[in-house]
Prior knowledge:
It is a single chain. 71% of the residues lie in helices and 0% in strands. It has helices spanning 6-13, 16-40, 46-61, 65-83, 93-107, 117-123, 130-136. The protein is mostly helical and 137 residues long. It is globular.
Amino acid sequence: MRFQTSFEKIAQTTHGQVFAMCFIGLRIILGLSSLYLITLLSGQPLGVLLILLAVATSLIIGLLVRPFALLAMAGTVIFVVASVDLSANPHVVLPVLGLLLLLGMFAAGGSGHVFGCDGIVFRNLRRSTSVTRFLFG
């Protein structure tokens, strides 16, 4: 029996083409919004901007989506804990939770295989190891 990614399991229960197009659109929109966030955070340290650039590029071209989605989730949590006063701004929690859930959906696997480079790279690997399965989903 062939291994199914989380994306393929969900896509079987819905209209496959519509779900795939919405999923691709979400991935690209999130990548473009990360690029826009770089312009807003121009005064931040270079490391923060480089991580945002790596996450945005990964989401747009669909290469190494899982590890960069996990990195973006950790970065989001660290940013919110470090810089947002939740007692003064309780309305921040819901959008951040939505972003974390969306990134978690991308990290679950299969996102880079749909109109992305992860599927191309994974199919052309000579040997599949646990590291390559983690990186390329």
